[in-house]
User: What shape does this take?
Amino acid sequence: MTASARMIVRMIARLRTQGIRNEAVLSAMQRVPRTQFVDSGLAFNAYEDTPLPIGFQQTISQPFVVARMLEILLAGRASLGRTLEVGAGCGYQAAVMSSLASDVFAVERIRGLIETAKENLRPLRLPNVRMKHADGMLGLPEAAPFDSIIVAAGAPQIPVALVEQLAPGGRLLAPVGDQRTQQLVLVERRENNSFTESRYDAVRFVPLLAGTE
Assistant: This one.
């Protein structure tokens, strides 16, 4: 077993001890090499449970947060279905979701990051992942509606545009709050077009910003 394979095994074991129980999520994370998505100088730290810098004052989320968010979104469902990721970053979470969703549409407001993400993803040859340089607060109306929306940046409120792009029966998960206190909030759109909201773990994400750069 290679050193990288051993680190992946340890990461999965740690996620289990941290309470992650969804085997589909654990399997998806086991298949994606995090070293592919961080700077070579940080490769040794890639599987530690800590966020890491990816440039442009952004970070790759710690493995537990990725696993926890996907576990919440997937709970009781066989697939994430047609999925929108707001804040693609380095492309890691999109790669993990590729085996949990029918299609993944990932948007990122920073052009340099989206180009990096595309380069990171290219060797993995994931045919159901599409990346776009766009304002995540607006979602991706041309590809809507979505069965799942996952937001990888925090805001005081969930943008209305994102909620409106949920399909009936769809779920949206986002960190909500200020830069000191954020909480994962799950919004579900019922078949009758009513909405329910549930709150989960305390988290800390970079801010969700409007526009592109």
